[in-house]
Design a protein that fits this description.
13 strands; Na+/H+ antiporter like fold; Rossmann fold; about 10% strand; eleven-stranded mixed sheet; 3 domains; 28 helices; elongated; alpha/beta; two-stranded antiparallel ribbon
């Protein structure tokens, strides 16, 4: 009988015809698939293409890529397509199995090395009580449950199943950090509150597992070896290899990093040297009785995470490993699964199923109990338990290891793979259903500037991606800040958030910024952050202003979670984001699509008002040279274009905060329809009149405030007003007016190129108007807009404020 792919790795002797590396070609009568190179290339291509197709279908059901890749292996394996003789002999003949298995194992060890490099071990030290309790409960609760049932069942368990139960108890009670980080990244939950706890808890779980392996591995070697000295040598070699990784490989790598120019990737020869050292250590771990993948992971942990090493390795290896090698590895796990063996009625399968279910149930119970004891919400505790129960590449690697050692037979291996697919198939869709962190921010008690007390502290969250975003945002904040002891001084608190794309790290970061004293800064580009913070610190000089810097390192897809979380935690009334288009020195606009996605998500989920700042002037100066002492001695001319609605009222309320700055000259331009036109929304009109009247009343004695009305009938008239007076100002503030219908702007939204800016914002952002003023587009928090207080408005005839209170020019 032909051996199965699983039995191929055992001591089975097979005789193959000597296959050449390549073929002579179809036109010379040779079969192209007779050569091993084209055959393996075709197999890899088939697996990758099938994985993409299956994932495109199953992702709608909430399935992650790892699950789909294992399913592809089952589909192509001997249980389904591989049972067809012509398909098996043509595409997956026995002579190619070892080559394909070798390629898949190479991908696995490279993946483990990358995960190790991207892992920041300081997360263990920073783990709070909650993460520590969850991590330990996730290990010992299922472990206790397994051993309790093991001794309760006693001799009824088949003797041959004891080693695999012990292996499952050790390996699967641990929550694999690579699996959790990979799954959270795919589900876009890396920087959510549950995701952060899960990462810290899983890393702690891995640390405990490594300690357990270091203790138990010598004992297993001693049991299998005839010489008891082998156990001592195994322990000693493990310690020596760990010391070599830390004091040789790490030291050499740090020397390479020190001679790398700041903010530059690792040089080619240094990159190759790091890989050679990692492969060498992996081979040594294998020689000393440890698995090569474990050795590569340990070496990766010893190396510094973040740039330049982490970013260089990710840029050059991660795409190849994740998109090519990893699908082959997981598909081979499914390829070696025989469904007929899994469905057989064997006693050992029933016991194995029991213990696998016990481990999953024990982890859910233990983690939820630990989370609830630490005052987590029930929904979040359940979501955390689901995340910690995700299975994937590490469990497939463990099954391969047991199969190579003879611990796992065809039935056991197949049951393990099916359980991985079944558990992941249930957990990930349920997790998507239960936990959606973005939605929670929209349900909070939203804040805005309009409803804040006039003399209260204004809290603003300023977000910057790079040094080029600093100057325009600092200009706006300088206008809002009051001078010390000045007119109508109102304090302002600025939370600065430097947004950095996650690269070369496994875990996202949101933390207060600490200045670095090292050359080149700390990991994550903190030297750039130092320059940005230094520029914002000048706002504090001579004013009632304070600046608190933070750093967010996260993927662009979920960066809005950090922004919204910080805004909610600090009770921010307004957050300011840079527009995704920047004016370049050569004239063409620089567009960053990822930044646009961040802005769109923040507009949808922010717990406060949002301002998007459009800068028409190129800003290529370093942040450290942004602030010139004499720069803010000049006057700043600000205009507010007011059409009406919650967003326009919020824009006017924010501009009113600038009245306290003696260098700011503010003009309110109210665009109104001709007298006699029917009101579209009388209630909104009354709110608009009251906000404008209050603003004019408060600034009645201020000669730096002017107000004028412009009667317009359509969008063409609005464009004419903007052309006439738009270039007289340094800053223009408008409302986004999302969802607001007005006869004045009817049909203009259909021609808008930037819907996130609204109709007026899109006009000012357009290059057709040749407007050089910076534009701040304001959106009032959606929840606050729905809770507008219905205050009694003052009748027009009794209004003491004229519509053109100050008509004099500056």
């Amino acid at each position: 009988m032909d051996p199965t792919p699983l039995e191929f790795n055992k001591n089975v002797t097979l005789c193959f015809i000597n296959s050449p590396v390549s073929s002579a070609g179809f036109w010379l009568g040779d079969n192209p698939l007779r050569g091993m190179l084209p055959l393996v290339m075709l197999q890899i291509s088939m697996i990758v293409i099938c994985c993409r197709i299956v994932h495109s279908v199953l992702r709608r059901l909430g399935q992650v890529e790892a699950t789909c890749q294992i399913i592809v292996g089952i589909l192509l394996g001997p249980s389904l397509a591989g049972s067809i003789p012509w398909f098996r002999l043509t595409f997956f003949p026995k002579r190619s199995w070892m080559h394909l298995i070798t390629v898949s194992q190479l991908g696995y060890v490279l993946f483990m090395f990358l995960v190790g490099v991207k892992t920041d071990l300081s997360l263990i030290l920073k783990s709070g009580r909650k993460a520590m309790a969850v991590g330990l409960a996730g290990i010992f609760a299922p472990l206790a449950l397994v051993f309790l049932f093991r001794y309760a069942l006693g001799a009824s368990i088949p003797l041959g199943l004891t080693p695999i139960i012990r292996g499952v108890a050790m390996r699967w009670c641990m929550t694999a950090f690579p699996v959790v980080s990979h799954t959270l990244a795919e589900l876009r939950l890396l920087n959510s509150s549950v995701g952060r706890i899960a990462l810290s808890a899983s890393l702690l779980s891995n640390f405990v597992f490594v300690i357990g392996v270091a203790i138990l591995s010598p004992l297993e070697v001693g049991d299998r070896a005839t010489n008891q000295l082998s156990a001592v040598l195994t322990t000693s070699s493990c310690i020596v290899l760990a010391l070599v990784s830390v004091f040789v490989v790490r030291v050499v790598t740090l020397w390479m990093i020190r001679k790398t120019p700041p903010r530059q990737p690792l040089q080619e020869r240094d990159f190759a040297a790091v890989l050679v050292m990692a492969f060498g250590c992996g081979i040594l771990y294998e020689l000393m009785g440890y698995n090569v993948s474990t050795g590569m992971f340990m070496v990766g942990l010893a190396l510094p995470s973040g740039p330049p090493l982490g970013t260089t390795l990710v840029r050059r290896l991660e795409g190849l490993v994740s998109d090519l090698f990893l699908p082959v590895f997981l598909a081979m796990g499914g390829f070696k699964t025989l469904l007929s063996a899994v469905t057989s009625d064997e006693a050992e399968l029933k016991y194995l199923q029991l213990f696998l279910v016990l481990i999953m149930a024990g982890k859910v119970i233990g983690i939820m109990a630990a989370a609830l004891c630490n005052r987590m919400r029930l929904r979040n505790a359940f979501a955390l338990a689901l995340v910690m129960n995700v299975r994937g590449i590490n469990e497939v690697g463990a099954l391969n290891l047991w199969q190579n050692d003879g611990m796992a037979g065809t039935h056991t291996y197949g049951m393990g793979i099916i359980f991985i697919v079944a558990s992941a198939g249930i957990v990930t869709p349920l997790l998507k259903r239960v936990y959606r962190p973005s939605v929670t921010y929209g349900k909070t008690n939203a804040r805005n500037v309009q409803q804040s007390k006039h003399d209260a502290e204004l809290r603003v969250l300023a977000c910057v991606h790079g040094e080029e975003d600093v100057a325009p945002i600092v200009d706006v904040l300088q206008a809002v800040r009051p001078a010390a002891g000045g007119f109508q001084a109102r304090p302002i608190c600025i939370y600065l958030l430097h947004l950095i794309q996650l690269a070369g790290r496994s875990a996202a970061l949101l933390a207060p910024h600490r200045e670095s004293n090292r050359r080149g800064g700390s990991r994550g580009g903190s030297s750039v952050t130092d320059h940005i913070v230094h520029a914002f610190r000048h706002i504090e000089l001579g004013s009632h202003a304070s600046v608190y810097p933070f750093v967010s390192i996260s993927p662009y897809a979920t960066m809005h979670l950090d922004i919204c979380a910080l805004a909610q935690e600090k009770n921010v009334a307004m957050l300011i984001l840079p527009y995704h288009k920047r004016a370049a020195v050569h004239g063409a606009a620089e567009v960053t699509g990822a930044h646009r996605g961040v802005n769109a998500s923040v507009l949808s989920y922010a717990p406060c008002s949002v301002g998007i700042l459009v800068n028409h002037r190129p800003s290529k100066r370093p942040a450290s040279t942004v602030i010139v002492p004499s720069r803010y001695d000049a006057r700043m001319y600000v205009a507010v274009y007011f059409l009406g609605g919650p967003d326009d009222r919020e824009a006017l309320s924010f501009a009113a905060r600038m009245v306290g700055n003696p260098k700011v000259f503010l003009t309110l331009v109210r665009l109104r329809r001709p007298t006699g036109c029917a009101a579209v929304d009388a209630e909104e009109d009354r709110h608009d009149d009251q906000v404008v009247d209050e603003f004019l009343l408060d600034s009645k004695a201020n000669e730096r405030v002017a107000c004028c009305e412009e009667v317009v009938q359509n969008g063409e008239d609005i464009i004419g007003v903007i052309r006439d007076i738009g270039n007289e100002f340094n800053l223009v503030i408008v409302g986004r007016r999302q969802g607001m219908e007005s006869p004045l702007t009817a049909g203009m939204a259909d021609w808008s190129e930037n819907p996130e800016l609204g109709v007026l914002g899109d006009m000012f952002a357009s290059t057709d108007l040749l407007c050089t003023a910076a534009t701040l587009v304001v959106q009032q928090s959606r929840a606050a807009a729905r809770r507008q207080p219905k205050r009694q408005c003052m009748p027009k005839e009794s209004n003491p404020i004229s519509r053109c209170l100050h008509s004099s020019s500056f």
